[in-house]
Specification:
Largest sheet: 5 strands, parallel
Radius of gyration: 18 Å
Number of domains: 2
CATH class of the largest domain: Alpha Beta
Strand order of the largest sheet: 5-4-1-6-7
CATH superfamily of the largest domain: HAD superfamily/HAD-like
Order of helices and strands: EEHHHHEHEHEHHEHEH
Helix content: 40-55%
Strand content: 5-15%
């Protein structure tokens, strides 16, 4: 029995590609695209843990990679990396009202600000735990426990959907029902939901 469903966002509800941002800003940087990736990775972790807010991230990123453009362009490049996974959006629309729907995602304030405004699918959710707000990230057990308390979930009757195996395994180890999502195998998720009477 499933009484609630918790969705990841990246590569479950939205495809994302950081390379789009790198290609966009690289012509205005003093370092190579590969070096941009290396320099931004530690800042990205700080951002997604909430230890660094968006404006500070943009400023520090620009300084570290020698970005000579307008900071608003760097911010936009970082945000505009998503496209919807329409099959998942259709599933959310069908599930809405049948069981509570929640989000549990490693993300940051820049991305959340962007996708919550741009994509109507997020209006279907009853709540969210985002890593930058919680101060912790998947697959840390603490963030799953945080979600359990925040949403009053019973892990045994909660289905968690994520594209990254370590995140799925962490949830399973805590007693959650899980689905390892692959967009090219979307029908597997439909089958699992159908078997639960949620089709």
């Amino acid at each position: 029995m499933v009484e609630a469903i918790v969705f990841d966002i990246g590569n479950v509800l939205l495809r994302f590609d950081f390379n789009l941002a790198i290609k966009r800003i690289a012509p205005l940087c003093v370092v190579s695209p590969a070096r941009i990736v290396e320099l931004l990775e530690p800042l990205k972790v700080e951002l997604e843990c909430g230890r660094l807010l968006g404006d500070a991230f943009v400023s520090k990123a620009a300084e570290s990679i020698g970005f000579s453009g307008d900071l608003r362009e760097l911010r936009a490049a970082w945000q505009e990396i998503f496209e919807p996974i329409e099959a998942s959006h259709q599933l959310v629309a069908r599930l809405r009202g049948k069981v509570p729907l929640y989000l549990l995602s490693n993300t940051n304030d820049l991305h959340a600000e962007y996708f919550l405004e741009k994509y109507a699918v997020f209006e279907s959710f009853d709540g969210a735990v985002f890593s930058h707000q919680a101060g912790m990230m998947k697959p840390d057990a603490a963030i799953y426990e945080h979600a359990v308390h925040q949403f009053a979930l019973n892990p045994k009757t909660t289905l968690f959907i994520d594209d990254l195996l370590p995140n799925v395994q962490a949830a399973a180890s805590l007693g959650w029902q899980v689905h390892h999502y692959e967009a090219r195998k979307h029908e597997d998720l439909l089958f699992q939901c159908g078997g639960l009477g949620l089709k």
